[in-house]
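PROTEIN DESIGN WORKSHEET
SECTION A - STRUCTURE
LENGTH: 404
TOKENS:
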């Protein structure tokens, strides 16, 4: 009997997913471990590997279909030696039709024909939604994505072309504003942060850290050309945060279902911005890794995040998030906690300022970094938070220890 392949659950919380593409085509042989399709969850686009061997006899749910419920039949995989008749019977079973020995092939073909199909135009789910909202005929657009796939920017560029034509014709912009459906990721982020701000008792601290030596050492290492990738300030902050959490383990905890979970490992999440929101990939055991290893791993995770290809194991875990907006010239800010984490660090830009030397005898020009810290008061009190923040500032002011 052919295998009815169902929409897999790629995480414990997944209920639906978008079927992005079929990597295997109808009629192709599949071996266990082969990637057969790509599915978009609320976090990433993930490749799905086969667990059974056989022929991809029939694709029931086509690429580009959105909100496919977990356990929905999406394909038929036939075993060696099975006939087309067996495949047609399996499809008829899925469609709820009666199958018996005297049902003719024509009737079964009609069962196949009633299974809904989407347009064969290759386009991302977001591009399809945007085209529907803006009333754009997607079949008239040439895609610039991989394999000619239509992506979001293609729809935006098509809209701009139409708007420009309207302005030239009338002298007045025909479109004053556009209402768009909120992208799935943006909607999830909005719900999560609203819930966090409403349910988590936040309190906040800020502290200045002297990063003059850190910036000097980083520049010296990068100019040496000894590393394949250049170190960033964020690499040092990740390492310093991990060591400060090891110094003050009372902040390496979270609130989970009315209980306190204390972590034995030090895992640090880092916010990475993407088009529709952000991901928070996690550096595991960051306190045990060298600065170069952290830097390389962070670049790899950031690249996967921007391609929507992070796996759940790469963005789950830890008790703290780092959000850095210093590269945009932001001096300081305070973030909303990324639950279930119990804290989030907000990193601004290093600013040059004059400060007195330790003995108070002279003014020196130093680079000062303002760190904001939002804390979950259910599990962390003010003293523990202050001790951690001071430990972090000390670590950042002594960067030589961070690169050992």
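SECTION B - SEQUENCE
RESIDUE ASSIGNMENT:
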């Amino acid at each position: 009997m052919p295998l009815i392949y169902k929409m897999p659950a790629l995480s414990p919380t997944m209920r639906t997913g978008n079927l992005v593409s079929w990597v295997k085509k109808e009629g192709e042989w599949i071996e266990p471990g082969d990637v057969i399709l790509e599915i978009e969850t609320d976090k990433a686009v993930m490749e799905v590997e086969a667990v059974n061997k056989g022929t991809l006899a029939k694709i029931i749910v086509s690429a580009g279909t959105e909100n496919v419920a977990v356990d929905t039949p999406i394909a038929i995989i036939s075993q060696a030696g099975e006939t087309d008749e067996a495949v047609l019977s399996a499809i008829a079973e899925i469609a709820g039709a009666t199958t018996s020995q005297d049902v003719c092939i024509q009737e079964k073909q009609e069962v196949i024909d009633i299974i809904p199909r989407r347009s064969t135009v290759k386009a991302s789910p977001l591009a399809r939604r945007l085209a529907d909202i803006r009333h754009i005929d997607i079949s008239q657009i040439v895609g610039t994505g991989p394999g000619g796939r239509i992506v979001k920017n293609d729809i935006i560029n098509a809209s701009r072309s139409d708007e420009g034509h309207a302005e030239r014709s009338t002298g007045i912009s025909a479109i004053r504003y556009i209402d768009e459906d909120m992208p799935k990721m943006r909607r999830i982020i909005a719900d999560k942060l609203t819930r966090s701000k409403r349910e988590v008792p936040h309190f906040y601290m800020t502290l200045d850290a002297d990063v003059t030596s850190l910036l000097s050492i980083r520049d010296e290492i990068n100019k040496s050309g000894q590393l394949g990738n250049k170190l960033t300030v964020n690499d040092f902050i990740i390492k310093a945060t991990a060591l400060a959490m090891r110094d003050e383990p009372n902040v390496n905890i979270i609130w989970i279902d009315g209980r306190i979970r204390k972590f034995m490992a030090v895992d640090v999440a880092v916010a990475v911005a993407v088009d529709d929101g952000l991901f928070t990939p996690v550096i595991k055991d960051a306190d045990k890794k060298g600065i170069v290893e952290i830097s390389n791993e962070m670049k790899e995770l950031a690249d996967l995040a921007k391609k929507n290809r992070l796996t759940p194991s790469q963005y789950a875990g830890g008790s703290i998030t780092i959000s850095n907006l210093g590269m945009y010239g932001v001096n300081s800010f305070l973030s909303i906690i990324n639950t279930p984490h119990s804290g989030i660090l907000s990193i601004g830009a290093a600013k040059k300022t004059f400060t007195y030397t330790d003995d108070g005898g002279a003014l020196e020009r130093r680079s000062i970094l303002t760190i904001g810290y939002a804390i979950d008061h259910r599990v962390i009190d003010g003293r523990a938070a202050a001790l951690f923040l001071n430990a972090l500032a000390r670590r950042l002011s002594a960067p030589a220890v961070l690169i050992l």
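SECTION C - NOTES
The first strand starts at residue 3 and ends at 6.
The radius of gyration is 27 Å.
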